[in-house]
């Protein structure tokens, strides 16, 4: 599908007011909610369980260094697989790409299991490599689906709902671990029994992905068709990917994406270094519950089409960066002290709360930043093909930052204090470049005119329908 004339957004992606849209009946098993649920279950089974393992601190290991190095390998390979994901989508479709993307997660869990139980290290690295090859495609495919399948007035809620499943893995993992390790008030590694459950769930991921509707089968309440086809020759598609990456608006967001995702390895490592096994399990469980609440709240705010897009985006940006800065300053003070005092906090330890609460806030902040990055890509995309490219670039950029983060956090000085210092610096340096992009959202005269035209057309259709029904 071509973009509409005049440089505006494709009708699938326009920010329209819901009450102006003539609603169309849809079958439940073709609806955007159904597909969001399937996508969420895939997210739960694959990256959700990956997050569950890492939210225990270093994949549940006693020391974070091997697991952080393995995760760095995963994200390095994801940079490559994300870049080529649009080409793979051309040949196997977006549904095929999602199925392919779920395959490599179970070997990663198997590697952590054998390391935890037998001390084997090579399978951790092999599993990480297989995960990286498939996960880059999965990340790009799921992001494109999450942005292109829903109606514009449901996109924020769908993003929050879909990402809830990702955190559902963390909630499950934390609950299981809390039950198995509730009496372990010392530092150490978690029970290997947990990994058997994780392996089984991740192995089910490809089967769940088979239930997703292809774009042509999706039915939206606004009547728009979903098209995520790539028709370009692979060489041309690679050229378009590079050109999209080099656009000034995307380049200005690189630091914001970096500060959003670099944090993950940092706060997971923080949890593994300074807390007991059962405190880590509690942190995994509670932080996910808080993040789910915050993420869905942000999604509902971004969907309030009664509020101007410029206001929605600016308020969300202001709240996110202000809170994130406060949490990083707090954590910087703590790790600077911990490097000298070398504590191991348990929930029965004095001072546990002041060290534990920042971890909860940082996890919630990660969810808010994560969802907002998807919102940014949706605003930059002008047509469904750009959704795929921006999705792949976002996930590739995230992977590059996380490869650096996990790689550096495998070095002791960065694990203990350096990672937090870098996160604070990234946060401060990202604010102005990101604002230069966000301040234009909702001020594009062509896009606004196109959205209003769509609204007028839909209103006209409703009026005609009412007249015809009265005549009948």
UniProtKB/TrEMBL annotation:
Membrane spanning residue stretches: 33-53, 65-84, 91-110, 122-147, 159-180, 192-212, 250-275, 281-302, 314-336, 356-377, 418-438
Subcellular location: Membrane
Record keyword Iron present: no
GO cellular component, one term: membrane
InterPro entries cross-referenced by the UniProt entry: MFS (IPR011701), MFS_trans_sf (IPR036259), UNC-93-like_regulator (IPR051617)
One function term, GO molecular function aspect: transmembrane transporter activity
Coarse class of the protein's main subcellular location: membrane
Membrane topology, as annotated: Multi-pass membrane protein
Keywords of this entry: Membrane, Transmembrane, Transmembrane helix
UniProt xrefs under PANTHER family: DUF895 DOMAIN MEMBRANE PROTEIN-RELATED, ET TRANSLATION PRODUCT-RELATED
Protein name as annotated: Major facilitator superfamily (MFS) profile domain-containing protein
Species whose genome carries this gene: Cyphellophora europaea (strain CBS 101466) (Phialophora europaea)
């Amino acid at each position: 599908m071509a973009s509409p004339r005049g440089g505006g957004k494709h009708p699938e992606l326009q920010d329209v007011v819901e009450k102006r849209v003539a609603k169309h009946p849809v079958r439940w098993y073709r609806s955007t909610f159904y597909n969001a649920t399937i996508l969420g279950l895939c997210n739960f089974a694959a990256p959700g369980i990956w997050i569950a393992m890492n939210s225990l601190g270093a994949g549940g290991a006693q020391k974070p260094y091997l697991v952080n190095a393995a995760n760095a390998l995963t994200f390095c390979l994801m940079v490559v697989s994300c870049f080529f994901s649009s080409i793979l989508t051309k040949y196997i479709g977006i549904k095929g790409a999602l199925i392919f993307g779920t395959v490599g997660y179970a070997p990663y869990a198997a590697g952590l299991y054998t390391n935890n139980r037998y001390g084997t290290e090579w399978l951790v690295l092999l599993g990480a490599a297989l995960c990286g090859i498939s996960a880059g495609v999965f990340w790009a495919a799921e992001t494109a689906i999450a942005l292109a399948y829903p109606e514009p007035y449901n996109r924020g809620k769908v993003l929050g709902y879909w990402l809830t499943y990702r955190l559902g893995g963390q909630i499950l993992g934390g609950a299981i671990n809390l039950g198995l390790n509730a009496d372990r008030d010392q530092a150490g590694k978690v029970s290997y029994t947990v990994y058997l459950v994780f392996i089984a769930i991740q192995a089910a991921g490809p089967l769940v992905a088979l239930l997703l509707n292809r774009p042509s089968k999706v039915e939206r309440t606004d009547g728009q068709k979903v098209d995520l086809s790539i028709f370009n020759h692979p060489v041309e598609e690679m050229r378009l990917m590079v050109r999209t990456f080099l656009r000034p608006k995307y380049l200005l967001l690189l630091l914001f994406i970096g500060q959003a995702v670099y944090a993950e390895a940092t706060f997971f490592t923080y949890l593994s270094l300074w807390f007991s096994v059962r405190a880590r399990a509690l942190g995994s469980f509670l932080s996910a519950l808080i993040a789910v609440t915050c993420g869905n709240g942000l999604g509902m705010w971004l969907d309030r089409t009664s509020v101007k897009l410029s206001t929605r985006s600016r308020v969300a940006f202001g709240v996110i960066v202000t809170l994130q800065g406060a949490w990083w300053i707090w954590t910087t003070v703590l790790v600077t002290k911990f490097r000298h005092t070398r504590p191991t906090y348990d929930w029965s330890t004095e001072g546990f709360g002041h060290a534990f609460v920042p971890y909860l806030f940082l996890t919630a902040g990660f969810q808010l930043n994560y969802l907002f990055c998807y919102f940014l890509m949706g605003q930059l995309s002008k047509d469904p093909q750009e959704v795929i490219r921006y999705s792949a670039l976002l996930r590739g950029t995230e992977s590059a930052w996380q490869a650096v983060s996990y790689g550096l956090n495998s070095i002791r000085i960065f694990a203990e204090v350096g990672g937090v210092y870098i996160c604070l610096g990234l946060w401060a340096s990202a604010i102005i470049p990101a604002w230069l992009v966000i301040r234009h959202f909702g001020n594009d005269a062509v896009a606004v005119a196109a959205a209003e035209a769509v609204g007028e057309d839909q209103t006209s259709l409703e009026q005609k329908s009412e007249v015809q029904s009265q005549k009948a």
